[in-house]
Amino acid sequence: MVSVDFGGIFNFLKDQVGGILSSSIGYIMSIDKNIESLEYEMGELKSIRDGIRGKCDTVKLQDVKLEPKVVWWLESVDALEAEEKSTVAEFDRRVKCMGEFSLDLWSSYNISKRSKKLLDRAADLKTKAVFDNVANEAGPPRFIEMPIPSTVGMDSVYEKLEEFVKADDGSIVGIYGMGGVGKTTLLKRFNNRFFIGKTDEVDVVIFVELPSGDFNTEEIQKAMYTRLRLPWRVEETQKERAAAILRALSQIKFILLLDNLWNRLDLEIVGIPVPKSRSKCKIILTSRIEDVCSQMDARKKIKMECLPWNDSWDLFKEKSDEELFSGNPQIKNQAMALARMCGGLPLALTTIARCMRSKRALGEWKHAVNNITDNPSDFPGMEEDVLVPLKQSYDQLPNDALKACLLYFTLWRNNKICECCVTSYWMSEGLINDFEDRKDARNKQSYILGTLRAASLLETAPDESFVGLHPMVGAMALWVARECGKLPNKWSVRYSNDLEKWRRAERISLRYQRLTTLPESPECPNLASLMLTNTHTLTKIPDSFFQSMPCLGVLDLSYTSIKGLPPGIGNLVGLHLLELQSTKITCLPEELKSLVKLKYLGLNWTRDLKAIPQGVIGALRQLLVLESYCSFCHWNTESTLGACFTELESLKKLTRLTLTVGSSAILQWLSESYPMADAVKELSIQNCDGLATMHLSSPTLLKNINCLSQLHLFDFDLKELVLGCGSEEDSEALPSPRFLILENLHRTKIVWRNRGLENLRKLYVMKCDKMEVLLHYEDDSTTHHEEGSRPVVTAFPNLEFLKVESLPKLKSLSDGWILSFPTLKTIVVYQCPELNKLTLVTEKLREFKCNKSWWDQLEWEVKRNENTFQLIYI
Questions:
Q1: How far apart are CA 164 and CA 177, in angstroms?
Q2: Could you give the angle at the alpha carbon of 48 between the alpha carbons of 45 and 49, nearest 5°?
Q3: How confident is the model at residue 197 (pLDDT cuts 50, 70, 90)?
């Protein structure tokens, strides 16, 4: 018989039920605490999760796989988060809404028990959140610091770049400028901004330096792959690589720095997404060619200029031996001259300063100054570090004609030349074709100059009418013209009496040299251009000088002191251009008749020229341009008396004529001579006896002279000059010069009417010693507004420059009314002692040039803002 211990069983059951009840009651009673602990623990876990996920997002741009344990962990946290949200939501719905004590004990028990399990899982996942790498391979660094040279003088342009990048209205920024000016340095400095600042604005900054000249898409894609650490697979197609780059960059905020772009880069083909407006993503590119920036759709463009003098000198001192300068003033002067010749180009300043760092002798520095432009390759490192890099811009010009036009500027050395003169030289050299209409030639010239400017190879003077080469571009061009230094005598820019050097030369330019004599009978079988301009000490040319120059096409003798041409000038039967401007020549020789191929004859400002033999001008049948402004004025109406006006009429190819007229009869003849009158661009009327009144509004005075750009009235007894007319219909038929000069018109009264001279840009009034009022107003019908009780009249709506000089009796600019010049930029007043009040309104005035004592006593009758213009004392 089995004995049963009912007492023991009862006690066991009692203990088990009691435990269960106790545990259940415990879950129920601790539900609030468990939920609160779960939410706190999950908050910490999610914070850890977000940090690890951020690392994972960064490596996504590599197209590499995440570590499996990382993927499992992230998925586990996400799943746990979903369960936690569900549990908390159920707690809020079933328990929390009942207040402090819920009657739904079963739900409270289940929710509390579940939250405790979730809490344990969260704690376990936190302990496992330690990973050496989140991916199989390390991702690319966000920022890479780059070494940069000195950034002297770069702060202002750097700030401008920062401003453009921060703006939301342009996603592509273009930086352009000549080689060696510091574009790459600027870009590297901008790149390092992110490395130093450790900014969170962008995920990655990518710097891609493109190869010089032509590049292919594969090269750029390979550079992008390398920076992004994408796996390069040879079997991939260009499109597949583009897709990989696009996929990588589309998921991040990036800044792409493209350095040294020579041609338009198709971003789509490479796989680079164009950043959207108001995006942190940006593309910043550098190029020597402004057109490339435009072709890349750069909405913001920055031109990198060469350094101003103070920054240039600081950089030169930094790279050389400043202590030597402080101890030797003579060497310092030579060093400053050398630094100035670098034209503010950082690359040249750095290279030459380093080269001269060890030089201690004054003679060494003087030799350097004398040779920097003529023989720059003498400097160690100059050829490879400066000339070769600059030559890349030359090599990238699209055709040989542009290259030849650029090299031609070396004949002016470091000086600028007026744009209007360039056409004649280029046409004479055959660099651009002849055009029946000179406007076509000027248009072609504008295209060439524009292309050279856009390539950062040509500089424009501040007044925008003169162009030339930067000193270092000029040095490069001269080096190229000499076959990269192999033929040093091919183009010569320094005088030598070594006749062997003359024999080998193709181009000789001896501008601004102190020459008193020239060699006798130099043999120059290949000489095509000879420029002796601005050699003021040269007074005579040897009779036999032109004896052996069979190929000479261009001869420039301007601004010399020669008084005549030798008979040997007739040997130059192939001459196309003869420039004699501002010489002291008194008579043209008969031998000029032999120059039957001459296309350009320059006689401007040859005030001593009194005689031109009969038939000389008429013999020049190929002449396209005759410049005779402020020069010979004794044209005759009959051929037996010397130079005859009919000779001018016989020049059927003439497209540009600047002329000086000394009689009203010739002026009338000129006005009625069509089409020659149409060729007149500049006209000087002087010593014109019998012309007491002149109406520019007259339909007959300057009839057919419709293209007049400059009019000069000089030294005759003109009593009244009427400018403008009374009606709009009449004004359309008037000549409207851009430049009007009134000089030595002692008794002239200038009358202005309400229309005409709409194109006038410059007005000079000089040496009119009896003039008391500049402009008299004689048309009350003109509509105008009033300031106070005085009428305000706009006489010349497009005038930009006004100069009044040596007018001892001038008291007012107008007779009782206020002059308004809405576009006036510069005013010059000199030696006008009685002019102590200005009745003048200007809106765009930039500079006022005058004597200080005169300015101090001046009363400006109309309110003005002096801060808008610069006061320059002369």
A1: 17
A2: 85
A3: low
Quote the CA–CA distance of 118 and 214 in Å, as a whole number: 63
Q: Kindly report the pTM of this predicted structure.
A: 0.79
Specify whether the CB–CB gap between 385 and 351 falls below 8 A: yes
Nearest partner of 280 among 249, 242, 243, judged by Cα:
249
DSSP lists the bridge partners of residue 684 as: 660, 712
DSSP H helical ranges for 372-494: 382, 388-395, 400-408, 419-429, 438-454, 471-481
Region 252-263: mean pLDDT is: 92
Per the listing, tokens 């493109």 go with 210
pLDDT over 90 percentage in the chain:
47
Amino acid 506 reads: E
Strand arrangement of the beta sheet that strand 785-787 belongs to: 785-787, 790-793, 818-821, 840-842
What separation in angstroms does the CA of 800 have from each of 215, 471, 821, 826, 842?
Answer: 47, 30, 8, 6, 10
Q: Does domain 385-481 have CATH number 3.30.360?
A: no
d(CA 451, CA 51): 53
Task: Say whether pLDDT at 465 is over 70.
Answer: yes
Which distant-in-sequence residues (6+ apart) come within 8 Å of 606 by Cβ?
580, 581, 582, 583, 584, 585, 631, 632
Tokens 């020579």, located at residue: 262
User: How far does the chain reach from its first CA to its final CA, in angstroms?
Assistant: 141
Task: State which H helix or E strand residue 112 sits in.
Answer: helix 105-127
Question: Distance between alpha carbon 111 and the CA centroid of its chain, in Å?
Answer: 74
For residue 211, give the amino acid letter. P
Residue 547 gets which letter from DSSP?
T
Q: Helix crossing, 105-127 with 6-29: angle to 10°?
A: 70
Distance CA(257)–CA(173), nearest Å, equals: 10
Taking the C-alpha atoms of residue 862 and residue 90, their distance in angstroms, rounded to an integer, is 83
User: What does the alpha-carbon distance between residue 638 and residue 643 come to, in Å, rounded to a whole number?
Assistant: 9
Q: Which of 147-151, 301-305, 580-584, 741-745 has the lowest mean pLDDT?
A: 147-151
* CATH classification (class only), 155-303: alpha beta
Nearest Cα neighbor of 676 from 662, 687, 661, 663 is 661
Q: What is the pLDDT of residue 639?
A: 65
pLDDT of residue 280: 81
- Give how far Cα 649 sits from Cα of 106, 298, 599, 610, 636, Å: 120, 53, 16, 20, 13
- Helical axes 346-355 vs 309-319, angle rounded to 10°: 40
User: In the predicted model, is pLDDT for residue 663 greater than 50?
Assistant: yes
pLDDT of residue 198: 59
Cβ proximity of 205 and 331 under 8 Å: no
Q: Is the pLDDT of residue 489 over 60?
A: yes
Q: Is the pLDDT of residue 305 over 60?
A: yes
Return the structure tokens found at 69.
């344990």
| Burial of residue 633, with CB atoms counted within 10 A of its CB: 0-12 exposed, 13-18 middle, 19 or more buried | buried
How many C-beta neighbours within 10 Å does residue 723 have?
A: 22
What is the rounded distance in angstroms from the CA atom of residue 561 to the CA atom of residue 720?
Answer: 38
The token duo for 496 is 């030598």
Per-residue pLDDT at 620: 95
Q: Do residues 437 and 536 lie in contact, with contact meaning Cβ atoms separated by under 8 Å?
A: no
Q: Does domain 491-692 have CATH number 3.40.50.720?
A: no
Q: pLDDT per residue over 624-638, tens digit each?
A: 999 999 999 988 877
Q: Model confidence over 782-808: pLDDT tens digits?
A: 444 555 567 888 888 899 999 999 999
- Mean pLDDT along residues 714-723: 88
What is the per-residue pLDDT for 60? 56
Classify burial at 300, counting beta carbons within 10 Å of its beta carbon; exposed 0-12, middle 13-18, buried 19 or more: buried
Calculate the average pLDDT of the chain: 85
Q: Residue 365 carries which side chain, given as an amino acid letter?
A: W
